[in-house]
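writing this on my phone so excuse typos. first protein, seq and then structure
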Amino acid sequence: MTAAEGSLKLVEELPGSLVESLIVQLRSGAVPAMPNPGYQGRVDEFLRCQADVRGELAPMLEVALAAKRSRQTAELVWTGPATPVVPVRRTEQVLSDLILVGGDGVIIAGHANQPLPRGTTISYDGGTWYVLTEGTDPALMIKVA
């Protein structure tokens, strides 16, 4: 597998925010550290396989990440409880990533701890979200400008 192919594969396997963090760490010369042992193992394996072109990995990852973000995708994110099989991400991190890259086209399906009447608006991180469904599970929301 070439370094470019490996970069594309890694970008598909990691959340965008972690790829961005990896790029910053590679550019600074720091030893890359990921917040999850599964992701850390994947990054370590990638770096071992691409040791001969390590100085070129940050730009390759940037191009691969831009390519990934330019197409529409759906991603299932598990926010808990922790299991030995599925990596866990904090809900705040997931929502922040979605809002950051989603612009006006983010739709979130999830559950609420209390009933949310249809038409409820929720303010979060400078944006307003509109609840499209009635009840608690799932609460379907869309960001409005």
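second protein below, same order as before
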Amino acid sequence: MKKKLFIALSVFVVLSVAFTTLVIATKEGGFGKSFLEIFNKAQNERKVIASAGDCKIYDTEFDSYKLFYTEKTDEEIFEYLFKNKLIISEAKKAGITVSEEEVIKAVENNKKIFFESAKEDDPGYILLKEICDGLNIKIENYFNLDAIKDAYSISILKSKYYQYLLNNDKTNSLSKDGENIFVENLKNELYNKIKDDIEYYKN
């Protein structure tokens, strides 16, 4: 499906605290309503649907990814979510931190890009407005939500961790593709250590 890109935080940034900026894709009607249902559930009654040790996956995290990536299998979504949680855990163990100033700067930069790029008749803008109307807030205030700031913080945390690992890697300097392979190999290594211990619960 052809996607029209807009700089904005998406549903799975808010719910799973995974990325800094993301694509909002053109979706069929009712998508914003589905988002709001997941968002409201995340605030009050989310449930653990899979775990491995201290690593837990919640139903709202899974549902939010499923909402965007309908072509992905459940297994692929669970694997992605576990890998993401494992990276966050490793970053914290390594002593990586994110300052409030870093978060504010990232939020303001992306907020500026969004309002300079998006038009009111763009599908991405319409979708975000639908979401904000449901939350009873203005679009500009969306970026000030605590959940959004937390999402930016986690994204920055992961980026700093990747850079920390790359800076400490004693092998030859890597190209951009090489860095991506390095990161994917790390995720796979962490996931392979826990995948046999994963327990799934009824949603």
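Confidence is low (pLDDT under 50) at residues 1-29. thats all i got for now
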